[in-house]
Specification:
alpha/beta; about 300 residues; 12 helices; two-stranded antiparallel sheet; 9 strands; Alkaline Phosphatase, subunit A
Length: about 300
Amino acid sequence: MKKIFLICVICFVSCKKDLPIENCPEHILSLDPAIGNHNVLIVGIDGFRSDALTENTTPFMYGLSSRDDVYFTSFHKTEEDTYSGPNWSSILTGVHYYKHNVVDNSFIGSRFSTYPPFQYYLERAYQQINTSSITNWAPINTFVCQQYLDYTSESTLSDSIVFELARESLINSLSLVPDVLFLQFDELDAAGHSFGFSSEVSEYANTLFKIDIFVEGLFNVIEEKRNNLGENWLFLIVSDHGGDGTGHGDSENPHINQTIFLTQHPYLNFLPNYITNQTDLAPTILDYMGVSSKEIDCKMDGVSIIE
């Protein structure tokens, strides 16, 4: 349940529209010749309050977070504007909300033509790459990703269908073999808005437990099938915001403005003692995929957490 407060939005957007757009001319993308068979799976979990990551509620993700081949923080910083629209936009574009100009869930005034999602650069760099996005919350694809990717789900899907579509595409490659796959589960956020954002709330905890099972299933497909085919997958989990009570509008509340970020790869080293923010996912993926340019360096606010 994502609420739009139109009066505040009109005021906020009108202020942001006067901000200058960086003069970052388009540059030729460089590819690292040592990169081969690299693939990425990003699991987005909407409304994930970080202290809900517990051994009882999320046994798989809890265990994964402590592995030696994992970067994990429960202090991942959201945008100051803690709505879903600004945060998913920052996650995908690698720039803060005052650049992409998404300040609510209507996406009015967005600047994705200037600050596109990271998949745009992958599609420019690799002629044969297949990029996909399967989301429960349809606006992510409708407003952010649709024009830049090979495949996006077009309507609102349940979390179970998001999982099944992702699993089938990874196992059976039904219509498109994804090289880079972004997923978004939304029912945890809905449970938080309806009943409360806390692992002590049964509806929230049970929804997160179900998502944990989905995450484990997808991780196992990567480990047991895709990597055995000679592919080389980077696995990420990220959330747009946490929550407190039945909302997530208080940008000063650490239960809201801090959430989780996890990255797993068996052979990579990640920055030690670094606290990520929403703009770090996109440059991390581009770094892993061997894509770089002065344009990316000029536009993006985040950093790659790969050493």
